[in-house]
Amino acid sequence: MPATTMITVAPTGAESAKADVPALPVTLDELVRTARACADIGASVVHVHVRDADARPTLDLARLTDTVTALREATDLVVQLSTGGAVTDPEADRLRALEAGPDAASCSMGTVNFGSDVFLNRWDFIVELHTAMRDREIVPEYEIFDLGQLTTLARLLDKHGLPYGGHVHCDFVMGVPGGMPGTVQALAAAVQALPPGATFSATGVGRSTLPVMLAALAAGGHLRVGLEDTLTYGPGEPVRDNGQLVARAAGLARIAQRPPAPVEETRALLGVRDRRPARA
Ligand code: KMH
Ligand code: ZN
């Protein structure tokens, strides 16, 4: 059982509209302020999707690069870019996101129904992402939406070797309509199917947020929280801001006697290369 809990904040995502969720950070300034606040409360990783001037999801490389730079200047958080983007994003744009030079990036392990959409992740594209991340010394977080995707991960590591840094870390994204349910049983099955030595975080979308968080803590896992996955704090109560979700995760982690991992510990665990600018 790890002594601490790595908390990732996923503050924005690509699915919700600012008009529907006013608390969503969509400008660079909002994102940096959110990241700072969440770092103070206990987050050590930020999973980043950016929005354009009209608050629509984008993988524009200049925006991604500016965002990585700004987050790195303002915080010590591990900056993890999404290569999943939105379900409509082409593979070339998703791959190009790595050129923004993040510390880490998501690498989804298979195709999954995503509500009435399809989140497409072909085997050849998975291999391309995994290999490009290693070439660029970017640490992948393998996103697992369904149990069979852990079989894909085993095949990937067997045929194409370990990621940059040598450590395998997965994130179970549970409760997506079309993926594995956010239940204790599904989480236990996923934990059993992890590659030897791998660590995991988990996040439960919507109503599965709390059951997944509690199950992950009990199973020795780490946590991902944020408005990307969770819009209501309780029945009929909209989330006030991302900090509220990080505070709840940090509180439960302390109750589980696995307090939030300091950022330097998270950097060492994931094996990220230190790209932070020298500060005065
Ligand atoms: N927005 C989803 C289609 C990731 O960031 O890599 C994909 C997603 C996963 O959020
Ligand atoms: Zn994401």
UniProtKB/TrEMBL annotation:
<dbReference type="GO" id="GO:0046872">
    <property type="term" value="F:metal ion binding"/>
</dbReference>
<dbReference type="InterPro" id="IPR013785">
    <property type="entry name" value="Aldolase_TIM"/>
</dbReference>
<keyword id="KW-0479">Metal-binding</keyword>
<dbReference type="GO" id="GO:0043720">
    <property type="term" value="F:3-keto-5-aminohexanoate cleavage activity"/>
</dbReference>
<dbReference type="Pfam" id="PF05853">
    <property type="entry name" value="BKACE"/>
</dbReference>
<keyword id="KW-0012">Acyltransferase</keyword>
<keyword id="KW-0808">Transferase</keyword>
<keyword id="KW-0862">Zinc</keyword>
<dbReference type="InterPro" id="IPR008567">
    <property type="entry name" value="BKACE"/>
</dbReference>
<protein>
    <submittedName>
        <fullName>3-keto-5-aminohexanoate cleavage enzyme</fullName>
        <ecNumber>2.3.1.247</ecNumber>
    </submittedName>
</protein>
